[in-house]
Every structure is written in C-alpha cells, then in structure tokens.
Amino acid sequence: MKKIIIKPVFAISLSFLLLAGCNTATKGELTQGKSDNNAETSKKNAAAIQAKTSQIEEREAAENQITKAQQLIQQSKFEDAQKILEELLNTTKGKDALIKENNLAEELLYQVKNNENKQTSTQNAIQNPSATNKSSAQASNPNTTSGGFKYKTYQNGRFGFTVQYPDTLKMGPEPTNDDGRQFANEECEILAYGSFVLDNETIQTEYQQAIDDAKISIAYQKLGSNWFVVSYKDVNNIVYEKSIIQDGVNYVLQITYPSSQQAKYGPMVTHIVNTYVPGHGEG
User: What are the φ and ψ backbone dihedral angles of 80, each rounded to 5 degrees?
Assistant: First the structure.
C-alpha cells in the first residue's frame, strides 16, 4: 500500500511570505540608496550652478566698473577713474576667472597715471613758464650728467625709442635693419632694440622666456600689464632686462655689468631705466 504524504500548506505559505518580505525590504533599501544619491548629485549641481552664477555676476560687475572708468577717462576725470580702477584691482586680484578684467584694469590705470602726469606738467608750465623753458633747454641738450657719468642720448630712427648711455661706452655700428644699437666698453654692455610682436607673443610669454633664459636664481622679477623686469646674476655679471610691448612692438633694454662693480654701475642702471622712452611703433 502506497503512503500518501500531505505537505503542510501553512508552512509553505509562511515561507513564501517571509521570502516576499525580504525581497520587498531589499527593493526598499535600493530605492532609498538611489534617492540619497540623487539628492547628493542635486546638491553638487546646485553648488556648481551657484558658483558659476557668482562668477558671471562678478565678471559683469567688473565689466561695468571698467566701462564706467573708461567713460570717466574720456571726460578727463582721471582721479575718479583711478579710484574705481584701484578698487577693482583689489577685487579681481588673484582670481583666475577675472584675469582678463584685472589686466585691462591695470592697463587703464597705467593710462590714467600717464594722463595725470601730463596734466600736472601742463599746469606747471602755465603757472611757471620760466621753469618749463629751462626744462625744455635741458631736454634738447643730448648730454646730461648723473651718478658720476656723463650721458649721451640715442634715438632709434626706425622704432623711435630713446635711451641714454654713458659717454665712456662706445656705440656700435648701425645694424642693417636699424632695430637698435649696442653700447659697450671692456666692462659694461647696453643693448636697446625693438622688434615686431608676433601673433603668438604676449608680455606673459616674453616674461616667461626671459625667466627660462636666466636658468639660475633670479634676484628680481616683476610683471606689469604690458612690461616686465628681470634681473639675475650670470657667472660674474649682473644682467638687467626690461621689456615693454606697445603699438605692436616689443621694446627691449638689456644691461650687463660686473657684479663686483655694483656700486659703480647700479646708479647708471637706475638713470638709464628712468630716462628710457619707448617709441610708438615703426616710424
């Protein structure tokens, strides 16, 4: 006789319910995890959008300040323009997103200060014409004396820049392209020349190139909106280089002298740099 086994229906149903409950719990946990991830992503997106919006607002504010300064410059209100530009530079300094606005503000401030100096000179000329006549006579005299040196003045015929050099230095021959001159004696050398700026050249690239060329520790370096200065020691010599880019021309002034003669030639460098005048493009 065959035995008939009857399975408890209640036990099977209970096992099914427990398994279904586990599956439901697992799905709930996954749904909760996905929801948390979505919330975190939303927070990050919101923060990124807020940062981008803040950058746009800062850039628009900077552009508005620059426009306002430009309008004041056109109206010859240089003091008001200078105040705006100096405040703007404090705001944009060190912010990569505003580097364009920072450079433009530096350039405008440079123009403002130049115009202020011109206005002061004009006012002094009106108030004291005898002093102006004396200054004009000195300017027309190509020979001046300063710091123990007597200086001569050289003006480049092609690019129009002007440089003073000690009469103890001999002026080299005129190059074929008339881009500048060399002035030298057995100790010191001055190079002054101009060159056209290529499409891929900026004051930043020229500054970096000068630093790379130095290859050793640099004693002094400074970068402006359209100029830079680099000074370093090369074996037994001190090399001073200044570059100015304007009107499509790179004006370069380089002075080399013995480091042991710093007391003698230091004042000379100061005089040459202070009296150097770049040109206004090719004449």
Answer: -65, -40
Dist. CA 196–CA 227, nearest whole Å: 15
Structure tokens, 103: 């450079």
* Alpha carbon separation from 20 to 33, 36, 214 (Å, rounded): 20, 24, 77
E-state strands within the chain: 144-146, 149-155, 162-166, 170-171, 180-184, 189-196, 218-223, 227-234, 237-246, 249-258
What is the rounded CA–CA span in Å between residue 110 and residue 88? 14
Going 13 to 19 to 24 to 25, the CA torsion angle's sign is: positive
Tokens representing 171 are 């002026």
Contact (CB, 8 A) for 166 and 151: yes
* Beta pairing, strands 144-146 & 237-246: unpaired
Domain coordinates in residue numbering, the chain = 27-120, 142-275
Q: What is the DSSP letter of 167?
A: T
If DSSP codes are grouped into helix, strand and coil, which group holds residue 173? coil
CA distance 267 to 263: 7
* The two three-digit tokens of residue 123, written as one number: 């006012």
- Which CATH fold topology does 142-275 show? Protein Transport Mog1p; Chain A (3.40.1000)
In this structure, the dihedral spanned by the alpha carbons of residues 128, 130, 134 and 135, taken in order and rounded to 10 degrees, is: 20
pLDDT digits (tens), the chain, 283 positions:
555 555 554 454 545 544 555 555 555 555 666 666 777 777 778 777 887 788 788 888 988 888 888 888 777 787 888 889 888 878 887 677 776 676 667 667 756 665 655 455 445 444 454 443 433 333 345 567 676 899 999 999 999 999 999 999 999 999 999 999 999 999 999 999 999 998 889 999 999 999 998 877 799 999 999 999 999 998 899 999 999 999 999 999 999 999 999 999 999 999 999 999 999 776 6
- Among residues 88, 94, 122, 80, the alpha carbon closest in space to that of 107 is found at 88
